Amino acid sequence: MSTQSRRAGTEDFRASRPWPLSQVSDWQIETDVVVVGFGAAGASAAIEAAAAGARTTLFEVASGSGGTSAMAGGDIYLGGNGGTPAQRENGFEDSTEDFFRYMMLAGGPDADEERVRLYAEAALDHFDWLKAQGIPYRTSYLPGKVQAPGTGDCLIWSGNEDAWPFNEQAQPCPRGHLPEAYGELGGGGRMLLDNLAARATELGVDTHFDARVLCLVADESAQVHGVVVRLAGEPRFVRATRGVILCAGGFALDREMLREYAPVTARLGDDALSAGYDDGSGIRMGQSVGGAAIHMDEIFTTLPIYPPASHVKGILVNEQGQRFVNEDAYPGRIAIHCLRQPGDRIFLLVDHAIFEQPSEFSRIEIAAVGESWEEIERELEMVEGTLVHSVALFNQHAAKGEDPLFHKGAPYLKALDEPPFAALACHIGEAFYPYFTLGGLRVRPSGEVLTAEGEIIPGLYAAGRTCSGLPRSAEGYSSGMSLGDCTFFGRMAGRAAAGAAPR
Ligand SMILES: Cc1cc2nc3c(=O)[nH]c(=O)nc-3n(C[C@H](O)[C@H](O)[C@H](O)COP(=O)(O)OP(=O)(O)OC[C@H]3O[C@@H](n4cnc5c(N)ncnc54)[C@H](O)[C@@H]3O)c2cc1C
Q: How far is the CA of 434 from the centre of ligand 1 (A)?
């Protein structure tokens, strides 16, 4: 008696184990392309697959579209080719080479050159595609240090473009592009997803909600033929003649995977950024048929020292009173440098001239207030002379508009010499260090999933945070790189799967 004929229950299926093709006697659904997950990557993949004429079926475990993508500010990293309309209108000419160089630096030592080149060259076309899906963009520009402004304005500085060492190697240019939001409450990500979801529906994508994909169906040579999905509480066998595209997000909520691959998250508390289903099931399904997972230790995290923007003029010190980073870097880069310090106690030092109440969500508290830096040093119980010396050295150079240690930009240099002074606690495990995962399946730019030996697994594709894509280095992450990667390479995967020879 086959396992299926004794009516396998959902408990018989594991993401980490493919269901043998030989044990499927009956397909309940037959389609060309199966897409797993209805976030930015899945929506983009489904749109392109359906637009290419493939019968496309999408399964989403939640009761609606969006995933973590819909929680986002909706920022998409775009530029090159002389500049987007928003860049050009605001006086920024962005060359493809500068855009390429920046993204290679941002991608870290293992940046995927083929992927970065493709994206840099096609970013403007991709922007046109996003607009053609109905996503509205203005051309307005918000200068300075802003994060998720929620105003509906478009162009922002969203990474390390103008910060050392990036600004020495690529001409700085703002490249974060936000869609018009839903009023002052923001919701750029929701706006993005609503438009992509409407387009998928218009193209006839057969969408099932409350539908968890449990595992892949594969033959003995690990070729993928379909999936098993839980529909109305029952396992259903779904055949995909051309391919399965895994777009199930990352593993920020799976404690076991975090412990194994990204143990640093244990220091950050329960601030995973997720809509609720980043349990790594997509990655595990890919691994179950031999897919390699790479950069699994890389996470995005951030320390929101701004708003208020004035705090960028403060200096960060570790519990030994030593500076360690240029404070005008993207807060994601700052957070990674915080994690590398010898202890969890991190302080942002400010003076009366730049102090404003930290934003409530940052959970940054006042640790000490004093009329002199000596007083602050004593209050923080630091070794005498350590913090005082760091501030004195910084002040001496800042007064001349210089920062020979960390090369903070001149607009943010100001001697911290106006009492009273304060130390703000940005401690790891106490302040808000939200995170999501960047590691995932190793894929070609077409989304084809690769084994550790670099071989393509027939019938299997992945996009978004289920794979390791454009954003693969925590230190270089810039806001907009994840959604840029999800939408652009989701499209590539959709097209590649739709064009695959039917099996
Ligand atoms: C508050 C916040 C702000 C952010 N702002 C930005 C930003 O402005 N720009 C940017 O680039 N990035 C931003 N990010 C990061 C970005 O949103 C995510 O990295 C990105 O949306 C991931 O997209 P995805 O399609 O890979 O995954 P998701 O959007 O999470 O989609 C995956 C979908 O798969 C579903 N799923 C999971 N497992 C299964 C299964 N087994 N079967 C069926 N369905 C399944 C999930 O329910 C989900 O709907 C932000 C994140 C947060 C939380």
A: 14
- Summarize pLDDT for 255-297 with one digit per residue, the tens: 999 999 999 999 998 999 999 999 999 999 999 999 999 999 9
| Domain spanning 10-70+188-299+436-499: CATH 3.50.50.60 | yes
Helix (H, G, I), strand (E, B) or coil at 98: helix
Alpha carbon of residue 160 to chain centroid: 15
Return the bridge partners of 451, or none.
291
Contacts of residue 257, Cβ cutoff 8 Å, sequence gap at least 6: 251, 280, 283, 284, 296
Where do the structural domains in the chain lie, given as residue ranges? 10-70+188-299+436-499, 71-185, 303-425
Taking CA atoms, 211 is separated from 135, 323, 452, in Å, by: 27, 50, 30
pTM of the model: 0.96
Interval between CA 394 and ligand 1 midpoint (Å): 40
Question: What is the per-residue pLDDT across 59-110, written as a single tens digit (0 to 9) for each?
Answer: 999 999 999 999 999 999 999 999 999 999 999 999 999 999 999 999 999 9
Question: What gap in Å lies between CA 64 and CA 92, rounded to an integer?
Answer: 39
User: Where are the strands (E) in 125-192, listed by range?
Assistant: 141-142, 155-156, 176-177
CATH code of the domain made up of 303-425: 3.90.700.10
Per-residue DSSP letters for 425-438?
Answer: E--TTTS---EEE-
How does residue 6 score in pLDDT terms, banded at 50, 70 and 90? low
Residue 152 has pLDDT above 90, yes or no: no
Mean pLDDT score of the chain: 96
Q: What is the C-alpha to C-alpha distance for residues 502 and 229, in angstroms, rounded to an integer?
A: 21
Query: Cα–Cα distance between 458 and 502 in angstroms, integer?
Result: 11
Substitution site in 65, 69, 119, 330 for ligand 1 pocket (most atoms within 8 Å of beta carbon): 69
Distance 482 CA to ligand 1 centre (A): 9
Phi, psi of 248 (to 5 degrees): -100, 15
Distance from the CA of 246 to the center of ligand 1, in angstroms?
Answer: 12
59 Cα–ligand 1 center, Å: 15
**Which residues lie with the beta carbon below 6 Å from any ligand 1 atom?**
36-42, 59-62, 67-69, 71-75, 212-213, 247-249, 273, 275, 277, 281-282, 436, 464-465, 479-483, 486
- Ligand 1 atom with the shortest distance to the CA of 436: 19
Q: From the CA of 503, how far away is ligand 1's center (Å)? A: 31
Alpha helix (H) residue ranges in 95-148:
96-106, 113-132
Token pair in block for residue 127: 């922007």
Gap between the terminal Cα atoms of the chain: 27
* CA-nearest residue, atom 50 of ligand 1: 72
Q: Strand 365-370 vs strand 212-218: parallel, antiparallel, or unpaired?
A: unpaired
Q: Whose CA is nearest to atom 4 of ligand 1?
A: 72
